[in-house]
Amino acid sequence: MSITALKVSQKSAAVVTGAGSGIGKSFAYEIARRGGQVICVDIDLKAAQNTATMLKELGTKAIAYQCDVGSESAMEKLSNEAEDLLERPITLLVNNAGVGAGGSIGEMSMKDWQWIMKVNLWGVIHGCHFFTPKLKGLGYGGIINVASAAAFAAAPEMGAYNVTKAGVLSLSETLAAELVGTGVNVTVLCPTMVPTNIIENSRISKEDKEMGARAMEKLAFTNSDKVARQTLSALDKGKLYMMPQIDAKIWWRVKRFAPAPYARGIGEVYKLFR
Q1: Judging by DSSP bridges, how do beta strands 62-66 and 184-189 pair with one another?
Q2: How far apart are alpha carbons 259 and 257 in whole angstroms?
Q3: How many domains does the chain have?
Q4: 3-state secondary structure of 24
């Protein structure tokens, strides 16, 4: 089936990780609104159930599923059960689950590094590894990987988060190249600030959480619902990169065309704030 014959986002059978809140919840809702069915995956089963209940009110099939995306065996189990749960082939995967942690390199604990790598990077690797062969076999569908502008902005004291999101960006680019001609589209989402629970649940100091919340209030010029709509539409159009905010687009271009001056500049700004 041609990717243009039917939009991937419409009447899809989707697996959405981190669907209990934030961007994941918005993806689940928008997919359901477009006539799709959704397996709402989250490590917090109650949150997943709340999202699934909301989707059922739209008249669609929605299933809550508890899963630690950082666990290889748990994600393999999800991939093996998903089709039976929805009683149809999975056509859309949204790797959204993510966490936050901050701190200077050399000071942030190895435990926090391992925690964020497990969820943010390995969670996406697991999703792509187990679902890509199924989508290729189907010859139709899409994968959305949620990265961040942090993937290329490289802000100081966000080293671990930056590394995980850079990995997701590179993985998405590689996967898109491998899937050319298969009928499966890949889109990587790279937003800046979007109001979610990630700051509240991050492993950072109380002061940093308060500062992050203030910045989010002032600088978040969009919301998760709008981001989900834009990203699903980008997937339908076969767009690899989705940057929903102008600041992400500016950083992307500056970093690509003047990488060394960018690094020096952000370092000087960091020194001023320190």
Answers
A1: unpaired
A2: 6
A3: 1
A4: helix
Exposed, middle or buried, 45 (CB in 10 Å: 0-12/13-18/19+)? Answer: middle
b/e for 65-99, b at 16 or more Cβ within 10 A?
Answer: bbbbbbbeebbeebbeebeebbeeebbbbbbbbbb
Question: Does 155 reside within a domain?
Answer: yes
Residue 1: both structure tokens together: 């089936």
- Beta strands 184-189 and 141-146: pairing type? parallel
Cβ neighbours for 117, distance < 8 A, ≥ 6 positions apart:
160, 163, 164
In a domain, 82, yes or no: yes
Residue 192's CATH number: 3.40.50.720
Q: Is 247 exposed, middle or buried (0-12, 13-18, 19+ CB in 10 A)?
A: middle
Q: For the segment 127-179, what is each residue's pLDDT rounded down to a tens digit?
A: 999 999 999 999 999 999 999 999 999 989 999 999 999 999 999 999 999 99
Tokens 């680019």, located at residue: 173
**Single pTM value for the model:** 0.89
Find the distance separating the first CA and the last CA of the chain, reported in whole Å.
55
